[in-house]
Structures are given as structure tokens and as C-alpha cells.
Amino acid sequence: MGSSNSTPTRPPPSRELSRPWRETDWSEKDELLHYVNEFKPSCEVLRIMLYGPVGAGKSSFINSVQRVILGRNAMSALENSSRQGSSFTKNFTIHKLKKGRGEHYPLEIVDIMGIEPLEGGIKCDDIINALEGHILDEYTFNPVKAISNVDPKYNKDPTLSDKVHCLVCVLPADSVSRMEDDNFAKMKRVRAHASLLEIPQVIVMTQVDKACELVNQDLKKIYYSRKIKEKAAECSNNVGVSLNAIYPLKNYPESIMQEPDTDVLILTALRDILNFANDYVEREMKKEKS
């Protein structure tokens, strides 16, 4: 009998890494929540803006942040259960997060129309105008043309408070591989302008439980997941944001009960976003004084 020259088939790599690619203290929810609740920005209110493709979970992230701060189910932004079709959000909407009854947290989260391929969705020029503080609350986006400087909702003389202090790109981990190149091209154009303005940028990567069965079974496995690490690297490569500014997490689309592990991931992202935004504000205030 002749000898076989076939090469043995290698087993596929394990879906679970032997060491986490990012360290996390799952017991620090109370410490994180205290830090966020006691945070005192250098200006009256910090403003962050979310952008990303349709169905990425921008509105759900706003509600999840509000929920963690209040410690109960909350609905600040209206959500659409469908992830298909055109953007559910049509307006430039400033969400003032509640800290308690009659009290607001010093953070505004701006929700805008979703990015769509080709000629659909929000115009890049509108996102850029929003970054610079030129768009007022409740402006209705026009997918055909960007806002003009004669529009009643155009702010001709924005102050530092009107401008965006941190730009947050929201991407879905379970479908980022199927996103069209045109969407990434638009996001890169926005990111390039934000970089010129020296605005800090992060990625919030949602839907991690749908992207990886290991994580779906145990959220604490998120940084042991080979799949989630690969998805984070894909987001980094396609948008240009470094891995240390990418925050994989799970929103609250279904559960009405608090989940401590979910809260830790959201609070970790929120803590860093607050610090990045405040660092930007301090730099801009220093420029104004010089």
C-alpha cells in the first residue's frame, strides 16, 4: 500500500481565548456608577453625538445609558424594533439625561438620522454642521440636501456649549461585516473632519450577544471571545478608531430588569466618553483664553 501525502487537517482555533484581550473588573459597578454620578464637567453640560448606520442601536444606547443612571427601565429616545429600511430617527434631537426627579445630568446625548448607502440617510455635511454646533434642536433632516445657513434651525454663531465634545460611532457587531463600503466611506469622511476639529472619537460596538454565542451565554466572556476581538478589529480598520477607544457592549432591548454585567460595560464606556469630552472642552477653553 502506498503512503498518503495528505496534510492533516488542523482543528479550527478555539472561540475562547486563553487570556482576555482587555481586563475588566466585573465587581466595580457601584464604583463606576458613583464616578459617573459625581462627575463635574469643566463646562455646564457636555455634549456627545451618536452617528452610525441605520439599525446600529443608537437610540437603544441612549435609553440604556439613561436606564443605568436612573437604575430603572427608561425610555428617553423612541426606538424602532426593526433594523431594516430607512432611519427611524428623522430629527436632530438633544436628549437631556435625567439624574433624578426634576434633576438633569450634565450630559447631553445627540441622536441624529442614520447613515445609509448611496443617496439615502443623513448627509455628511449635516453631521459636520452638527459637529460644529450649527444645527439647533429638533431640526428635521432632509435626505436630499443638507441644511443651509438661512434655515431657521441653522445656528450661525455657535458657542463651545453648542459644539460636539465627543463623537461616538455606533456599530453593530453582528452585522458590521455585511455593511456596505459606502457607509464606511461616509463615516471616514465625518471622522476626518472631526479629527481636524480635534474632537475625540470612540466606537460603541453593540449587539455583542448576537454576534457571539459564547458571549450570549455569558457576557463576562466578552473579552475572552475571539469573535468579539475580531469584530472590534474590523470596526477599527474600517473606521480608523484605535482599539483602545472601542467599547463592545450590550444594550437593553429586551430585559426590564437591571443586569449588573451589562451595566458595567455601559458605565465603562460612559466614564471614558465623559473624560474624553471634558478633556476636549478644557483644551478649547484654554485656546479661548490664550
Layout of strands and helices, then pairs:
Blueprint (H helix, E strand, L loop, with lengths): L28 H9 L8 E6 L6 H13 L22 E8 L2 E9 L12 H8 L34 E7 L8 H16 L4 E6 L1 H4 L1 H5 L8 H14 L6 E3 L11 H30 L1
Helix pairs in contact: 1-8, 3-4
Percent strand? 5-15%
Structural class assignment: alpha/beta
What's the assembly state of these chains? single chain
Total beta-strand segments = 6
Give the ordered list of helices and strands.
HEHEEHEHEHHHEH
Mean pLDDT: 90
Distance between the termini: 86 Å
Helical content (DSSP H or I, runs of 4+): 25-40%
For the report, how would you describe the main beta sheet?
A: 6 strands, mixed
Which stretches are poorly predicted, pLDDT < 50 over at least 5 residues? none
Q: How would you describe the shape? A: globular
What is the C-alpha radius of gyration, as a whole number of Å?
20 Å
Query: What is the overall number of helices?
Result: 8
Give the spatial strand order of the biggest sheet. Answer: 2-3-1-4-5-6
